[in-house]
Every structure is written in structure tokens, then in C-alpha cells.
Amino acid sequence: MQWANIRLFAVHFWRNATAPKSFYLLFLIFILLTAYSAVSGIKNHNTQNNIRQEHQVKARQSWEANPDKHPHRMAHFGTFAFRIHPTLGIFDYGLESFTGSTVFLEAHRQNSVNFSEATFSTGMLRFGELSLALLLQLVLPLVLFFTGFSSVAKDKQNGTLKILLSQGATWKEILFGKSIGLFAISLLFFIPILLVVIITLLLFEPSELNDFRWLRLFIIGISYLIFLFMISSITVIVSAISNAPKNALLRLLGIWLLLVILLPKSAQAMGNYWFPTPSKLAFQSAIEKEVIQKGDSHNPNDPHYNHLRDSVLTVHNVSKVTDLPFNYSGFVMREGEKITATLYRKHQAKLVNIYKNQNDITRFSSFVNPFTAIKLISMTMSGTDFSSYMDFQDKADDYRYQLAQTMNELQMEYISPKKESGSEGKSHVVEHEHWEDFQDFRHKPIAFTSSVKEAFPALLSILFWAVGTIFLILFISKRAKAI
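Above: the chain sequence. Below: its structure as C-alpha cells.
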């Protein structure tokens, strides 16, 4: 196998493929789609972040504007946590439109994240949004299929292939050369998108100093290059094993439908069938049932808290809670918050484990579907996947728990222990300066190492496909026929 011949076949394929005017029309349409996707992505990013940051500021102002008040009332007054839209979300929207961005934080309750785009949109959103990543994942492979379907089949049909082989060319040189030529054409479409993303990252200031955005983009770029080379090689291989160009095109379209529509939908259906999720009502009912069994902090006659009260009185050697050196009601609320948070996190972990099992079906299907692999890598490294959403939800709940417990500790320390209940009057309030002391919620993006860990199976599968494609070319080169 001579590299000079491979280069010759690659250049020849490039010239033939880019000669028709229809190719430039196709390229122009793709560039227009790229421009539209980039503008809409940047506009959506700016709009979403401006809205979320504005309302985060308003939520903080509302929190600090509270007058002197009972701390437990402040715990129930609560605040909001808003998720910042990641900068690479301009490139790949991922699950951003479905997962929500806002959660209300209050004592004793773990609310769900709300206000997703899907809740305000029609069912058309299920078909996806036109993003830069979608162009590379779905549209560009079709462009390569239509550009390269006749790369070998046409030469086989008109007899050119027999002449090439009789003059000393080998199947390896032909297949590798045409694959490289088609891959070079794919770069014409890929480079403009990459430049748009790079310029966007340069224009937007990082939300965090260590968000690893450039390393994330590097992994995304390398993964797409491998993906495009693999698509180019598969196109040439299918053309080589087909007797006519039309047969090659039909096979490639069938592969596209199988890998883009049928397999992903089948993986999702199997995940939902094997690992069914409980309804929201069943999930909340299970938590409330365990809370009642464990102990209800708002029930003065609850057995658990009666026993707790007796223990506390014994330890401090007093007969009444009003003789304790701290506010007993705040102590009970602190204990109740600990119990409800522990029970919620236990059930939440079970629910998340079900979702992860469902997602694992899709993740490991990437070893038989490269389109799934590149989609998972793209979403995960862009910070718009399920793990990024769960990271925000966990951080928001941690903040909620700290807020509730801080208010409970203020109640224990500053509310007179001589008052067993009630929240009215000057003796039952603390100064409003304490509200300002509690730091505001600031969303930090998911750690880079967590994203790499989540994307590892997909990264491994894309490398597997790259190596497998090369071996497939070598295998076909030994069995392909010129007729």
C-alpha cells in the first residue's frame, strides 16, 4: 500500500465530488443552517441566562428585604435557585429544554425543578431543536452519504475499477483514499461550526474560572472528527460492496434510519420497560409515609419526639423544655429537617438509580450505534446531559438543607427558651441582619472530572468504532470484487 496512491485517490475524489454546482448549493444551504443555529443558540443562551440571573437577584433581594421575623417562618418563606445555562449549551442543547431551570427551596420540602421549555411548548419539541450539534450528528452524515454513495459503485458499474486494479492499484489504496477524500469534504462543513463555537467561547466570559471549557471543546472536536471519518469510511465501504450506486444509496439511507431513529427509540423503550419509574404521586406518598412512621416534627404528640424530649430533658437534668438552655422548638425542627432530608435523599437515590439504569441501556447501546456515542459525548461535555441536571438539583438541595438548618439554629440560639411555641411578638423574632449573613445560591457547573466519568463509555465506544472501521476496510479490501 503506497501513500502516494492513497493521496492520488483522495485528491481525485475531492475534485469529482466538488465539481458539480449542486455541491455548492448544498454547502450554501448547510452554511445558512449553521448561521441560523448559531444565532438562535446564542440568542437563547443570552435570553435564558439574563432571565435567570435577574430573577436570582430578585429572589435574593426579596429574601433580604424581610423584616425581623421568626427564623422558622423564614425557613418556610424560602428562596429560589436558578440554573445557569452552560456556554457550550449554545453548541448542543441536550436536555436543557426538558429538565427545567428553577426550584423553590423551603424547609421540610424538596420541590422538583420546574419551568422547562417543554412545559411551554407544543409536542413538536419532541422532534428536536435545530442546533449546531444536530447538524453534525444528523444532517452532515446525510450529506456525506449523498456525496459518497457512488464513490466506488460508479467506478464498478462503468468498468473504471477494473482498469485501476489492473494498473497496479490495490483495494486498500482505493478504499482508504476515497475515505480520506470524503473525510476532507466533511471538514468543509465541520470547520465553520467549530469556528463559530470557538468565537462564541472567546466572546463569553467564563461563569467559573475552572470550567475547563476549552478542554471540553477539544474532546468534543476530536470525537466529531473520529465520527466523521468513521461515517466517511462506512459510506465508501457500502459503496464498495454494492453493485450499483442506487443500491448503495438505499443501503446508506437504511443505515441512517436504523441508527438515528430505530435503535435509539428501541433503547429508550427497553429502558422504560425493564426499569419502570414510579409516578410523582407514588414517590411523594412513599416519602410522607416513612416520615409519619419515623416521626412528624409538627405533631406535638408524636412518639418519636416524645421520646426525644424525654432524652433531652434527662441529659440536661431539667423537668420542662422551657428550662433548657436553648429553644426546644428549634431543636425539634432541626431534628425533623434532618429526618425528612435523609428520607428524601434515600428515595431520591433510588429514583435516580432507576433513571441511570434506563440511561445505561442507551449508553451501552453506543457500542452498536456510533450516532448514540457521539450524541452522548456531545451532551455530556457540553454540560447539558442528565448528570449535569442532577448535579444542579443536588447542589440546590444541599443549599436548601443548609438554609433550613441555619434558620433552626438561629431559633435555638436567639428565640427565648421560655416560650414553647408561637411566632408573633418581639420576643419571637430575630433581627433581619441575619438574613444577609446567609450567602446567596450560586450555581456552579458540574466538575470536568464528573463529565469525563459520565462520558467514558461513549468515548470508549467511539474509539472502538474508529478502530473497527479501519479493520473493516482491511477486511473488505481482501474480499471486494471489481464486478
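The chain is about 70% helix and 0% strand.
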